[in-house]
Amino acid sequence: MISIILVPLGFYYVNWSKSGEGAGLYSRDWIPDAIFAYWNPDDFYQPVKSVVGVFKGEDCISCHQGVTPGIVKDWQASRHSKADKKVYCNDCHGNDHENLHLPTPKICATCHTEQHQQFEDEKRFGFPSHALAMERALDAKHFVDKPKAEVTACLQCHSVATKCDSCHSRHKFSAAEARRPEACITCHSGPPHPDDETYFNSAHGQLYLKEGDQWDWSKPLKKGNYPAPTCAYCHMDEGKHQVADKSIWKFGLKEINPLTSGNEIKRKKWITLCADCHDEKWSADQLRIMDKERKRTWGKLYQAEKILKDLRSNKKLFPSVEQRPPYPGDEDDSLIKFERIGFFEGQASAFYNVSPIERDYFDMWYFGNLGAYKGSAHGDNSFVKKWHESMDKNLNDIKIKAEKLQHSGKRKADTKIIKDIWTKGEYTEFNRENN
Amino acid sequence: MKIKLFRGYFLVCILSVLSPQLHADKNSIPSGNIDNKTCINCHEKNNPQLIKDWKNSIHASTQPVTDCISCHGKNHSNSAATARPDKTCIKCHGGDKSPEVHSYTSSKHGIIMQLEKNTYDWQQPLRQANYRAPGCSYCHMHDSNHNINSLSRHSLMDNKAADNNEMAIRSVCQNCHAPRYITRLLINGENMLEIARKKVREGTGLIEQASTLFSESELQPANKVMQEMQHHLKNVYLGVAHQSPDYQWWHGHPALDGDLLNIKGIISELYRNKDNHKP
Known about the structure:
heterodimer, A: mainly alpha, globular, B: mainly alpha, 2 domains, elongated
């Protein structure tokens, strides 16, 4: 009986919460920046009304040759312009200039059905996934909370879910370009996912850097076609448009059991793939070495997490949750406020407005851990070493700071000045007023 | 809008008709190695605007001066094609790993350039999307404009400086991108940078306020973080300018958030200790 009432109520609530000016689960809490139209066209794009008329493909080309010559040259170099039945501008954007649209994956799927199905199919593996990347960004607490001009940075990469040109750059949409590792690195770089550096440092990457320009990139990503594997060769083998089906350790933000039957199947898939060049036992050993590295990392992370949770139980974190701005979203949502520590409490959004020791843990978890993971996964031992040293330093800092905090006596700092330091100031107030 | 576009198109037509006459008489092109003086003397007669632009640019006042030879080499043949590729700029601008360069090379423009640069005809002038991806010179020296200052945005902390070159920058982007997209991107970028400045000003304000109560040595750790903050602000600036999400975000905003909370942590600790030590 209760479920008869609760289930429809739940549906109603989710639909209501998704019907705001923004998008996603917290759409009622934020207003999009105008640029979002281009990163998430399905939700935000409105056509430009400056040019009136209904045009044929040839008309688009002849006018845009003068207006935006770059995109016309690109199209002319693309397969779209060379097909028996040319794929013109209007085939993807529409004919009516006052009602043009941006091509989303659904539109590309009109012709590229198989690739789109593979891309959509990725959703069943859950996060992380290209196909779910936009949802992931929009539903993140810090995305909802922070000023939208700031978090535009997120959407530029998370729009891999909403536009195919993240990898097949417009208007050439080249498969050969997307096969090359560089196509991935605009997003797969930087502290939490140094896929670029770790791959280029690896033996595979070194060979690519040396010889890659000479390889024939028009060939599909199949056994025997490339002398060394690249991002896409391994993660999108056989040209399959999804990257999640073999992922064992996923994003690396929580510990998983690498030995479940599901993960053993994934492991076999990796070994089969590596067997293009490597002996089965050798490949299996490499994967076990990675499991060991992960275990070592999680040993360190749990130590840090425990120290922080102890400080929290003893009410020694400074500033405490009462002295600083609320965890993103808590202002409206949460009756009981507490410092968020660890993956399951929402650590991913706890990188601002937290105490220095909590941020040390964030750095250790998000940068050290993930740097070591990618070093380990891509065969770059220098990165594993570098980031383990960094985690050791973070852990040491955390221990020293915790020692001081444990002996800091009664929290006397409820004085106005401490609260002002943490809750006032130009950015902090701007953030509170703008999301 | 249509009038503006027409005007732009008209200008391009005029320029392309005139451009052969802007070049020196073929017979007078020197052969063998030449020095900077020779370049200036000749081009001042044949193309005074080019020399004037260079003299107004920051290149003319660097130490040592970034002169014609620095980019074009000593040999006149092929000198334009020698100067145009990114590697010419990169050798002075910090090398491949500097934020100035890496924020570009990791952007979509940069990766397309990396993959296609060997297929480009570098004899082509830097205009009309003659190159599929814009390199350093395509944007910052568009249409052979030798005053790079006029195609750059300068000030890290001052948002008023941003408007000066906007029209010139827009016209470059417009070779490939739609006007509304450019407008929104420029506004968004300016706002994203201004938010980064807010973080820096908040940190600076806190240190200044605390300096009335605490000694320089007590505030030294906070000032050290402030130096980091300046680097991270610059990363946002470069990320916005070169369209690198990684520099806008991971090397930029969350790094600034960490700096700001560390400054707050250091200063609130000072206040707390002071409080606790009161008799």
